[in-house]
Amino acid sequence: MNLYRERSLIIFIIIVFCGTLISAQNLTPKIIGGFNVSTIDDFKHQVSLRDASHESSTFGSGHICGGSLINYDTVLTAAHCVHDGDRYLSPAYYMAVMGNLDLFVRDSNTVVRRVIKVIGHRKYDPDSFINDIALLKLNAPVPKDHPTAQPIRLSKTEARPGINCQSSGWGSIQYEENARAVRGLMAVNITINSKYDCNRRESHAGSVIRGQFCAGPFSGGKDTCQGDSGGPFACNGVLVGITSHGYECGLPNYPGIYMDVGYYRDWIAAANSAISSLSNLIVLIAILLILSIF
Ligand SMILES: *[C@@H]1O[C@H](CO)[C@@H](O)[C@H](O)[C@H]1NC(C)=O
Ligand SMILES: *[C@@H]1O[C@H](CO)[C@@H](O)[C@H](O)[C@H]1NC(C)=O
User: Fold this and answer.
1) Which of 79, 93, 169, 279 could cysteine-pair with 124, CB 3.0–4.6 Å?
2) The pTM is what?
3) Ligand 1 and 36: CB distance under 6 A
4) Residues in contact with 163: Cβ distance below 8 Å, sequence separation at least 6, in sequence order
5) How far is it, in rounded angstroms, from Cα 191 to Cα 133?
6) 38 CB less than 6 Å from ligand 1?
7) What is the pLDDT of residues 27-66, one digit of tens each?
């Protein structure tokens, strides 16, 4: 099944329907028109979000989405990566992997974490991709002095047209039985377009709403694609977007659509504090339990 070649206006995002596997045969890089990232320096925030049950066979084979490390124990991704179209899935499904350019390598730099909490936007709509944003809490923080995995700063302002940015990812769902190919991180340099241009009739025709932007040339050829979803869209070392969806990939007139991190900064802050108050509560309960024993 080659989803990218379907001519219908099927949105390319990958949804994990309760662990139902969508298999992609195609291992070619799915960042369209991009380049192989040669050093991790600018991509230490890049996360590979994986289906934990699929990781047992081959390390890297469970890759489903990208993500960005935004705190030592928090990953920002797209809601559709952790939602089955009906509800958010259990955190137990997911694993977050960081620290390496190669999806399949596990070495001393590789950070592997379980996801212990999924906080997805309550008003995420799978049909329109409105509010396609989610926060994941990891079971343990990444060490602060880790050489190749570090959080990225969030944009405080909404995305502005004309800025040059980079979108990155491994860009394929790695559900193949024998997915052992070397898979290096890819990135593409693209520019944020004005909402007016995104929403022209011959382009996205009004479907790029508040909280979203489109980026990439209208001539096509440079884009994110399947499996890049949830991943970072960074401009000068600041996270400005989350890869969300599009019509196929790299098609003329259809630049990819991203969630605007600056627009969602209050939601992100609230979700963040919900996560930390949760862990504070757990600590408090633990302390009370210990005190009651003595
Ligand atoms: C990226 O690297 C792979 C494997 O080394 C190579 O096959 C591919 O042509 C490279 N792609 C680009 C765009 O440089
Ligand atoms: C992409 O942008 C980065 C940062 O501006 C620059 O260093 C790099 O040379 C660009 N790469 C390509 C292939 O355009």
Assistant:
1) 79
2) 0.85
3) yes
4) 191, 192, 235, 236, 240
5) 21
6) no
7) 334 578 888 999 999 999 999 999 998 887 889 988 989 9
